[in-house]
């Protein structure tokens, strides 16, 4: 800047005569320029601005106009509905239950609609009393460690901040949870409690569904008591038996432009051919598998390590996040369904919602072929729920088979027991049911309408973005088991991933994926000690954690003690990442490596036994070192046993009673010093 200033001064170094002439000239020029600028500014301010503002008004309206009708009240009034069933759903089950409840309403002379809270302004709940015999029902799933589902996050935030008077609102809540988790049905309980605090009137007790038991039975039991309570409250009666009502109509496309047909995309047509960020659940990124190797040396199971290339995707992740992948069903299962139902699976069709006012125009992306729907969009491997059996019963030509289907779909004790035994415990999927009931041959379009959506599968990321910014690593074990009927059932996603072989340009190596953020995070200060407990594939996020701690150490940061408790069946069979862990230990990043081999000796040894063995060191790290504890893996047994072990250690070395020790560990959780990433 100094140089430029000096250069500009050079021309002014001239004689006094020329300077005087220049002063006179500059004065006249200045007056002219000032007058010109003032004139232009006046014109722009009074005339040009007005011209620009007037046409801009409709443009502004276009920009701020909502892309959706955010008032569910107006929609209910317009369509004559008086019951709205909101769902907080991560895997589709709560949405399915909401649809079933909204369909039930017609039996009582009422009209219902299922609604995604993400699409509406929930502050309108205070206006629901404007509609006669109105009721709001909430089917709310709990995700992770007591969190709301993604689509219910805004509703949860609103509830926390709201001071609205909901005294005119009548409501009921059914929660979907899993008892193996610490915060069982936290979201359902919170919504039920908070609505009452805001003055709303509960017309039926909170239902608590347990996916670790029999979620379907819990829902049916609640539902069969819920509707009589609704009838009593509103003074209405059932108008007749439950009947089969189609929600969608079939349109077969005989002459269609194949460029307008969905071939597996989750949202935008041709999104897999023309990829555009940002990538999420409705717009997954097609990542190439660059590595797929078997991790274990022996045994019956197949443990694998996959690496997904996310170069040029703008996807960012942190250690501890989850990667979601959209799998495809086994083509042999799809073909068998087509053969049994005598259908040309390549027929292009659409299923269009008969309710023209519904936000959900199709049950899955349409138009598409039956083959695509059964491969990418529909769940054909899980045992179907009772409502599917009820709707299918009408197509069984054998009276015995029809009666059995209706009985299993009923709320009678005998029917529930039969459903539990014949469908759930026998793990009969829709193909097995069609095979075992020869007279049951439903139209394929109705079957496609009834089957739930195939859901994304979540895996804990086994890498650090500091070390692998353009790659996401997955550690998984293939699921395979024989059912009571002698059939071999295979896990949809793990077998699909197993067959993803890296190649140069083939589509076989592509995986539709996106990243879901997690609260499972390393401490803010690298110097804070960490205790990581992750047997089996629960080691996945800790590979990322250790990679990150190694990277931090290389950057010259002071890194605290890094302690790992890992477990597997046998040292020579399924000790995964052995070389990597040994290297990290040699480099001094992994300060303690404790491995439990459960089946290498007469008595089984698990991670909790090693924690007890090192209890003094564990307590010192937690109490004096302010260590953060991380647990990843099986929720039903391992996570619970590990937590009980911490209760014992805290009680013994902290001189506390059992209740005090429990409270101590719960406070660690609240402070973010005891984190869980578990599944059942």
From TrEMBL:
Record key words, sorted: Endoplasmic reticulum, FAD, Flavoprotein, FMN, Membrane, NADP, Oxidoreductase, Transmembrane, Transmembrane helix
Record GO biological process: response to hormone
Record carries keyword Flavoprotein: yes
Enzyme class: oxidoreductase
Transmembrane found in the keyword field: yes
Membrane-crossing residue ranges in chain numbering: 25-46
Domain FAD-binding FR-type: 282-523
One GO cellular component, as annotated: cytosol
Required cofactor(s): FMN; FAD
Domain Flavodoxin-like per the UniProt entry, residue ranges: 83-227
Domain of life the protein comes from: Eukaryota
EC number: 1.6.2.4
A molecular-function term among this protein's GO annotations: FMN binding
PANTHER family registered for this protein in UniProt: NADPH--CYTOCHROME P450 REDUCTASE, NITRIC OXIDE SYNTHASE-RELATED
Stated name of the protein: NADPH--hemoprotein reductase
Native source organism of the sequence: Piprites chloris
